[in-house]
Amino acid sequence: METLRTPDERFLNLPGYPFQPHYVEVGGLRMHYVDEGAQSAVPVLMLHGEPSWSYLYRKMIPVLVSAGLRAVAPDLVGFGRSDKPANRGDYTYQGHVNWTTRFIQKLDLRGITLVCQDWGGVIGLRVAAEHPARFARIVAANTGLPTGEGPIGDAFMAWRKFSQETPTFPIGQIVQGGCANALPPEVVAAYDAPFPDERFKAGARQFPILVPIAPNDPAVPANRKAWEVLRGWEKPFLTAFSDGDPVTKGGERLLQSAIPGARNQTHTTITGAGHFLQEDKGEELARVIVDFIRGNS
User: Fold this and answer.
1) Catalytic residue among 35, 83, 90, 245
2) Among this protein's residues, is 245 annotated catalytic?
3) pLDDT (tens digit, 9 = 90+) per residue, 88-99?
């Protein structure tokens, strides 16, 4: 497997991101993560999606740490400071599940509060369902666990088409397009930092076509099995979707109705936020998570 590694100097002096890098090996690849707060504290595992990286959680990490929690935010393989296989064929849904599972095992995270958005949930909900003993709570934000059933929204299909046909894949501008608020140029540049050129974007290019949109997708059987677990999930489960995401709008209703642990929770709608609600309203989302953990300890 040919892999690329973004030069460290690309990550110097990024606005609002003073965190020291940490690395762990998963399946022969180096995976980067932020790890702030006491090692003995309740771990909050924050999984990003497409095409962002742990920079997305920079506003939330200080709020969680100040509340006495441990904030762990990895970069998925192919993103951020993690290694990036150069061949798109090296990226599969199952591969990401395996890498993320190995990451959790290597850090031996237990009593996890999972915070997942976009592909962070598509991967994270699978991992939680397959290893439930390691998870204590889940917060789902603008995400889901697709099984290729039901109508596929026009917004997602338009995004999928764009991702495969555009000659250049403008990571920072894509994040900007998924936000309700205008981002400063230096923040847009920070989202671009892990990707010096198009060769580094194989994972970002591949993710949109890995989403199961038909029942015969190879990931569907494992996702259906995960749903069997989630339909019996009694541990606390909270939805915190935004009010301005055309891709996942309404997905919270399925999670709330299908998952027993979602009953009697104070589900939240983050107003004034787009798909990337961590960027638009990160501090608010972090406070919701803190309250959720305190109310379900």
Assistant:
1) 245
2) yes
3) 999 999 999 999
